[in-house]
Specification:
about 30% strand, elongated, Beta-Lactamase, five-stranded antiparallel beta sheet, 18 strands, single chain, alpha+beta
Length: about 375
């Protein structure tokens, strides 16, 4: 090679290696000194195979590949391949090789240094694995949290045993839910509540744990039985729970509640709601009980007023306590909300069915409405029949 050519080859970020028909290296470009740290002369003959590889198996493998390529008439179809080479100071460089047949049955390899790219790829792969593990740990934690949440939910069979029949359609948007249903029986008094906590997923689920705790505190420990009094107490307990260690201001988290207290000895139902209504169907007539227009939790400086309504029960009266997830689901041809009107019509059309059949019917109707739309929110519908 001329001095000019050698000068150019030395500055290239590429290697040029020529292997003769005997499998011996007869030329290595001057750039080998800068890329690998070896003098080109040291890499001639068998030096290329011996110095740039770690072990005999790897040396034999790459030498055999070169000899097989030398036996071919043409290498037009040969694909580029990557190889890891040792450097003179014990480091490593990744080289992307392209090979072709040269004059006098030689094999010419042109290798581009791709070490920086490979390091970036390996770093990205490492980060991806870390993210995968992080995601797996997070999913495992949320899945475990869902089992805890399921454990605090009342047994549906207990609800069925307290009434003529009952069902609970409970369908979280994510693994865990911000919707929560409550049931407690105290002699002839049966407490039923549908609770819609702020948010869904993990934040909503954490609020549902708080809802479970304060409902038990107010109804079971404090023994309150009047729904409006229970809502006042829930409001106070939630405020204290969320703000006892909050020095930066008042939190805006809260929950909506539909609460019914059935007195089986007096054959009455007393209802009070915090932003959540209750629906009654009697003799194929639908009656909606409006809630109080205040949530449980922070609501500015407005003085809240919760009132109750008591009704006489009749046989086969059916009551529905629900959150807003079902009615707010988008779908249909126009991608609109299912809305309250359709929901009430659906309940009315299902009155000839057993309660378990009603649950399945509601699930089917919702899926048929959704089609390919994603679920918008947690869904909870409780139905009880007298």
């Amino acid at each position: 090679m001329s001095l000019v050519t050698d000068s150019i080859l030395e500055k290239l970020n590429s290697l040029i290696v020529v292997v003769n028909s005997k499998g011996e290296v007869e030329y290595v470009s001057p750039s080998a000194k800068r890329i690998l740290g070896f003098e080109p002369d040291a890499l001639m003959g068998q030096g290329w195979w011996d110095l740039t590889r770690d072990n005999d198996a790897e040396r034999n493998d790459i030498r055999s590949l070169a000899l097989n390529q030398l036996k071919q008439d043409s290498l037009l179809a040969t694909l580029p391949y990557e190889r890891l080479l040792k450097t003179a100071n014990g480091g490593e460089r990744w080289i992307l090789w392209n090979t072709s047949k040269g004059p006098m049955n030689t094999l010419v390899g042109i290798g581009h240094d791709i070490t920086d790219r490979k390091k970036a790829e390996q770093q990205l792969l490492k980060k991806n694995k870390e993210l995968e593990q992080h995601n797996k740990d997070m999913v495992d934690s949320i899945t475990y949290a869902s089992r805890i949440q399921e454990a605090i939910l009342p047994d549906v069979q207990q609800i069925r045993n307290a009434f003529k029949d009952a069902f609970v359609l409970y369908q979280p948007k994510d693994v865990v839910s911000g919707d929560y249903y409550f049931f407690h029986r105290k002699k002839d008094k049966v407490f039923v509540a549908a609770v819609d906590c702020t948010g869904h997923g993990v934040p909503g689920a954490l609020m549902s744990f708080i809802a479970n705790s304060i409902l038990k505190e107010v109804i079971i420990k404090k023994g309150l039985e009047e729904p409006s009094e229970i809502l006042y107490a829930l409001d106070e307990e939630l405020f204290l729970s969320l703000n006892k260690q909050n020095s930066d201001g008042v939190t805006n988290d809260g929950m909506d509640v539909a609460l019914g207290v059935f007195d089986l000895s007096k054959n009455t139902l007393t209802y009070s709601g915090a932003f959540r209504p209750m629906i009654m169907i009697r003799e194929n007539e639908i009656i909606e009980f409006d809630p109080n227009r205040y949530p449980i939790g922070f609501y500015g400086d407005v003085k809240k007023e919760f009132v109750s309504r008591t009704i006489e029960l009749q046989e086969n009266d059916t009551f529905y306590f629900f959150t807003d997830g079902y009615c707010d689901q988008f779908g249909g041809e126009l991608k609109k909300k299912f809305n309250r009107r359709r929901f009430k019509e659906l309940l009315l059309s299902a009155q000839s069915m057993e309660m378990e059949e009603q649950e399945s019917f509601l699930q089917y109707a919702l899926l048929n409405w959704r089609q390919e739309e994603e679920q918008m929110d947690d869904i909870l519908v409780m139905g009880v029949k007298i």
